[in-house]
Amino acid sequence: MTADAAPAPMAPVPYRVTGRRAETADTVTLTLEPVGVSIAEPLPGQFTMMYAFGIGEVPISVSRIGPGRVREQTVRAVGAVTRAVCATKPGQVVGLRGPFGVGWGLESARGRDLVIAAGGIGMAPLRPVVLRALSEREAFGRITVLIGARTPADLLFTDELDVWRARGARVEVTVDRPAPGWSGHVGLITALVGSVDADPVRAAAFVCGPEVMMRVTAEALIGLGMPAVDVRVSLERNMRCGLGWCGHCQLGPLLICRDGPVVPYGHAVPLMTVREL
Amino acid sequence: MNTLELTGLGPLYDALRRAGYTVIGPTVRDDAIVLAELDSIDHLPYGWGVRLAPGGYRLRRRDDGAAFAHAAGPQSWKPFLHRPRVKVWEADRTDDGFEVKDAAPEPGRLALLGVRPCDLRAIAIQDRVLTGGRHVDPSYAARRDGAFIVAVNCTEPGETCFCVSMGTGPQAGPGYDLSLTELTGEDSLRYVVDVGTEAGARVMGDIQAGPAEPAVVDRARAEVTAAADRMGREMPALGLRDLMAGSLEAERWDEVAERCLSCGNCTMVCPTCFCTRVTDTTDLTGDHAERWQLWDSCFDLDYSHLHGGDVRSSPKSRYRQWLTHKLGTWHDQFGSSGCVGCGRCIVWCPVGIDLTVEVAALRAETAQDGAG
């Protein structure tokens, strides 16, 4: 990479929205294609800084990598910038920087059983793991996907779950509060851990969701006999630059944009148990 | 290494100007010794010293005419290298969305005259944070590349100084182009000059400066050595990192939070605090956007904002973040302590919180817990 070709680290690269799918009442998945040059290909678990022109920039999970230079990113409208991004229509342009952070390390899990546990929008950064593992089905052992959400209406990627099952994943879904017509599990995601189809000592687990969900899920998986180093979680803090300069994403010794967002549960647990760290 | 001698700094100032540098140095302004562009070498704070205390700063007249016999002032060199407000880029809407034009880094060819050993180390620490990782901050790198550093060994530590504890002074470590030791005489000032780089040698080659006599060099070295014994504060560095990691639930944080105003002064005067916020704006048409990088502080409530609320909503958690980062987790992130012992955070805290006292209290509490 020459100095001329390297994009300035703070400059968003224009991407056109070529598809927009409403996942839930407040969450959309955007299909993005580069207008000109593209950013580097993300690894599953990495994120980009997504820019809404003139409004601001937020860290957003990559929820699908490919085909080719196409990306999907799933955004929940919780603030001014995410509301603007969610409101983007096909044909409009957003900016991307990155990808940033370390991913799930799926490569290191080749040959092992996989446990993928997602709470709410936590499914977004895990979807590339599911898709990549299923696309190389023979490279991995048994694959279990556990999904928890507050209500059936808060579930993401619902039209894909049967496809994942058909391609060889066990997919279990639970909700905190059922709705009329819901015939699936009700209750915490930890109640699904018993249905994990994996050899605990040769499995790798990837867990993403609210911090409390990640803690109880990780503890339940460790309770099955999984070593804590084989359980990975994805952490979230305020991010302004993605480059390790701005300081905002500190969590104890970690700069989440640089050292995370994915960290082994054993590293995360002492940081997740101190209030306001 | 060359050791030269100068009587007076006029020739050095002129040589720096001839080499194209804007000279920044200490000068008296608004009852403080501030760092500013020097129009003339006569504007150095000759004959001024300072009296420092927790939450207190006063100028005092000295008996001699020394220019560098004052400890750290309200600014570090940080504003000159890591600018408080940087325009990162501007962008305009186009048919294909938008086009981003990087803002040219502010030109800067600065000679920093009078950099203390503590502040010299602080510059090295900011170098590591802003240019030593995977991504290089272009604004900082441009200012830093253009900087010429004239360090001054410390012969007059202040009441709030503890560079010896942090291993940063009173003798300047590596990183200077030239290093001075000021010697006051009956009617003149003499400077022993150590040359640190080729650039330093070129500037000195432009001046009529003879080698320093061994006796003069010995006196200069002795004055710096003696300064090490006159530190106003100490903060034993041994075990500091572990102390921070092991004190996250200490009761002392509640106590200090009753005094801390969360004003962020300590982070502004700290020569190593580097945090920034990224702010995006548009003009009224909405077709022209800009991105700015502004100094930020971990004491600001908004600093830790997540969609669920602010992670560090209590002043206690924000003070703990600042101190444990500075003295502890900085090692994990950037391979060194973030404290250089300059004492500015003690002096410029409006309620006089003294981190050396806080660390001692944390040590005592931990020792007690261990004993109990």
UniProtKB/TrEMBL annotation, chain A:
PANTHER family, sorted: ANAEROBIC SULFITE REDUCTASE SUBUNIT B, DIHYDROOROTATE DEHYDROGENASE B (NAD(+)), ELECTRON TRANSFER SUBUNIT
InterPro entries: Cyt_c3_hydrogenase_gsu, Dihydroorotate_DH_Fe-S-bd, FAD-bd_FR_type, FNR_nucleotide-bd, OxRdtase_FAD/NAD-bd, PyrK_electron_transfer, Riboflavin_synthase-like_b-brl
PROSITE patterns reported in the protein's UniProt record: FAD_FR
UniProt key word Iron-sulfur: yes
Ranges where the FAD-binding FR-type domain occurs: 10-106
Cofactor: [2Fe-2S] cluster
Source organism of this protein record: Actinomadura soli
Protein's name according to its UniProt entry: Oxidoreductase
Sequence positions that bind [2Fe-2S] cluster: C241, C246, C249, C257
GO terms, molecular function: 2 iron, 2 sulfur cluster binding; flavin adenine dinucleotide binding; metal ion binding; oxidoreductase activity
A Pfam family of this chain: NAD_binding_1
GO biological process: pyrimidine nucleotide biosynthetic process
Note describing how the cofactor binds: Binds 1 [2Fe-2S] cluster per subunit.
Keywords: 2Fe-2S, Iron, Iron-sulfur, Metal-binding
From TrEMBL, chain B:
UniProt-listed PROSITE patterns: 4FE4S_FER_1, 4FE4S_FER_2
Keywords: Iron, Iron-sulfur, Metal-binding
Domain 4Fe-4S ferredoxin-type: residue ranges: 249-281, 330-358
InterPro entries, A to Z: 4Fe4S_Fe-S-bd, 4Fe4S_Fe_S_CS, Helical_ferredxn
Entry's Gene Ontology molecular function annotations: iron-sulfur cluster binding; metal ion binding
Domain of life: Bacteria
Protein name: 4Fe-4S ferredoxin
